[in-house]
Amino acid sequence: MGKKVSSAVIRRLPRYYRYLDELHAKGVVRISSGSLAAEMGLTASQIRQDLNCFGGFGQQGYGYNVEKLRNEIADILGLKNYSRAILIGVGNLGRALINNFNFNRCGFQLIAAFDVAPGTVGSKINNIPVYHIDTLESFVGSDPPELAVLTVPSADTVEMASRLEKLGIKGIWNFTNRDLRPEDVSLKVENVHFDDSLMTLCYMIHET
Amino acid sequence: MGKKVSSAVIRRLPRYYRYLDELHAKGVVRISSGSLAAEMGLTASQIRQDLNCFGGFGQQGYGYNVEKLRNEIADILGLKNYSRAILIGVGNLGRALINNFNFNRCGFQLIAAFDVAPGTVGSKINNIPVYHIDTLESFVGSDPPELAVLTVPSADTVEMASRLEKLGIKGIWNFTNRDLRPEDVSLKVENVHFDDSLMTLCYMIHET
């Protein structure tokens, strides 16, 4: 790692990763910035600019080595760290994530989930044990996992986030309807907003 | 409606809507572009530029009327249309969306869901009836809903999307791991990517 890349570029890297990974899976070895641009709906010059930020893996006239570039992006994002993650709130959404979401692909390893419901606590979902939330502190102890996935009711968001912060968790992937802001907690947060893409789709459907 | 706004601005409108709606709920009547910018982590000049695209609701020195601006954005996005939506694939994620997601807020009204599982078909989830996917064509008939939410297994994505297109559905909110591209179907699509935000968070956690 050790490379410093602007946050706008960082936000685009997962998309590059996704496309390159798919190209690699299809057996594509090398791709020009023009073709990658067409594939991703960007301009070739934007792609060259972005990828130059961390060394520039393209050779003039030869394009990019798909696998090498994909691996480099994975390194920058830290996707090979497989940091430990816990999930708080095993409702429908929590359950859907435990069962279907590929945490490994995104650099994490889900190790446990927490809830309060009697039927859920003590069970295993997709091999992940579900513990009572009251045991969170003793589970974490002095070796906090890096990430917490937050799928609790909105009203519990801020309280749970500051509890997680006190435990030494470094980041929260927040699925609740209550955004976490810098004034709520000082750890790293990504608020997930389904609604934004649906509102955009609403516009597109009615546009013509 | 009838106003033509660039797609980059359109993509930012849901975020404006979210913030303005929250401010309105808190009782804020008027806000300066500077304060709105600080709240949203943008620059005042970007906000003025964006909002000028559709008439500019700010008066120099007086700021924006929060409720009026929120309603105008809702109008542009078409959030008051409450277009009909169906959901295909009642697994954990589908169930989580039916139970917890506020479709109304995003301009839609969920009217039915479809699946194949014997225990699920024939039931109601949060008052939404679940029908067998074989009855999709007869359910839709000559009056197709505007939107389909796709929460089927990845392998079924493209086939189901083109089936929905033939039925006259206008847009797909795609939650599968298989992106829908312009070469797959020609209706409007939003591919939802949880992973992008988690990969970004992965970077941020390891950054320092």
Description:
Chain A is 41% helix and 18% strand. Chain A is built from eight helices and nine strands. Chain A has 208 residues and is α/β, with parallel strands linked by helices. A seven-stranded mixed sheet of chain A has the order 5-6-4-3-7-8-9. A two-stranded antiparallel ribbon of chain A has the order 1-2. In chain A, helix 1 packs across helix 4 and helix 2 (33-40) crosses helix 3 (44-52). The model of chain A has no long low-confidence stretch (mean pLDDT 90). Chains A and B meet through helix 1, helix 5, strand 9 and helix 8 of A and helix 1, helix 5, strand 9 and helix 8 of B.
What is the string of helix and strand elements of chain A? HEHHEHEHEEEHEHEEH
Tally the beta strands of chain A. Answer: 9
The average pLDDT of chain A is 90
- The coarse silhouette of chain A is globular
Low-confidence stretches of chain A: none
Largest sheet of chain A: 7 strands, mixed
* N/C terminus separation of chain A: 47 Å
Question: Which bin fits the share of residues in helices of chain A?
Answer: 40-55%
SSE-based structural type of chain A: alpha/beta
Largest interface: A-B, 52 and 52 residues
Number of helices, where a helix is a run of at least 4 consecutive DSSP H or I residues of chain A:
8
Q: State the oligomer.
A: homodimer
Proportion of residues in extended strands of chain A: 15-25%
- Largest beta sheet of chain A: what is the strand line-up? 5-6-4-3-7-8-9
Radius of gyration from the alpha-carbon trace of chain A, in angstroms: 20 Å
